[in-house]
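Ops channel
N.P.: pipeline sanity check, posting one input/output pair.
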């Protein structure tokens, strides 16, 4: 077990990628939000956004972790109602929620959002992968509704393959059927690869192309390395977070070669689309532009490819 100071350090590290810097939040008029939420959302056969964060400005009911302060909440609000105004008009009706780092390991807001909208949300929780109780904690969260666990690399990924607690988490994932969802940098792909070799039955979902292209350039050697992971049949990749990759400009066509290569390596049944909202709707970026990169593509993607990437892969992994 970790001392409270260690836990605060852990949560602070989780949040270092959660606070967006210098981008203006795209506010929607209240009339647009009301129009989008006038009819209660029912889960159907619309598209699935496999990666969204939500939070509320009500910090009295849902206090921030001690590692964060109010000024860290940028934008100051992104509730399910604000999400609906973005996603419903373009046919997205189910969401995989990723626990927001602002709340640390307190998942109350995510659980309450799921309870308020049954069947609409799936959940990926945060977990301290360095805790001696990681397997026990994971099982408890799975019983609450978690379908997977996000793990962050903040300079310690090189230790993952030999970490006893990380090995416990990956074994529990194989035994219990939940997913491990690494948020990694390109240089960390090799360490995920080693864990996949140790635990071939563990379902893995790599976030945001392993951040390849975040520097502004898609590093071909790193992309090849990500594609090499496809030899492990339980590895999936989120084709997501376009606002942060490559030229970082809609319509994001510079990312098509990367999508083409991962599609060839993994096939559509192991790729899933996601926005990483609310960050996808900051500045000049829009929700629709993210969806259109996949939905409007006829050069790379067949109709069947689109069905898998926009819905069926996430349905299989997170709503099964």
């Amino acid at each position: 077990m970790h001392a409270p100071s260690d836990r605060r350090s852990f949560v602070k590290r989780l949040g270092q990628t959660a606070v967006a810097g210098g981008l203006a939040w795209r506010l929607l008029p209240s009339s647009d939000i009301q129009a989008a939420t006038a009819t209660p959302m029912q889960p159907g056969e619309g598209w699935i956004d496999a990666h969204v964060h939500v939070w509320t400005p009500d910090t009295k009911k849902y206090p921030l972790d001690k590692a964060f302060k109010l000024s860290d909440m940028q934008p100051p609000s992104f509730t399910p109602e604000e999400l609906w105004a973005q996603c419903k008009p373009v046919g997205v009706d189910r969401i995989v929620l990723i626990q927001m780092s602002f709340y640390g390991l307190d998942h109350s807001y995510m659980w309450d959002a799921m309870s308020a909208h049954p069947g609409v949300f799936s959940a990926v929780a945060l977990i301290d992968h360095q805790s001696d109780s990681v397997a026990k904690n994971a099982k408890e969260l799975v019983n609450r509704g978690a379908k997977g666990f996000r793990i962050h690399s903040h300079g310690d990924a090189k230790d993952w393959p030999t970490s006893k607690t990380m090995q416990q988490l990956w074994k529990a994932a194989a035994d219990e059927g939940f997913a491990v969802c690494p948020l990694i940098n390109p240089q960390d792909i090799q360490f995920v690869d080693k864990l996949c070799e140790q635990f071939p039955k563990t379902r893995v979902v790599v976030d945001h192309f392993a951040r390849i292209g975040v520097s502004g350039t898609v590093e071909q050697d790193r992309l090849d390395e990500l594609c090499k992971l496809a030899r492990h049949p339980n590895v999936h990749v989120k084709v997501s977070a376009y606002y942060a990759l490559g030229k970082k400009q809609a319509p994001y066509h510079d990312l098509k070669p990367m999508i083409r290569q991962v599609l060839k390596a993994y096939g559509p049944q192991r790729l899933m689309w996601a926005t990483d909202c609310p960050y996808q709707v900051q500045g000049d970026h829009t929700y629709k532009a993210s969806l259109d990169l996949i939905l409007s593509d006829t050069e790379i993607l067949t109709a069947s490819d689109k069905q898998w990437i926009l819905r069926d892969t996430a349905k299989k992994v997170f709503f099964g």
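N.P.: looks fine end to end. The radius of gyration is 18 Å.
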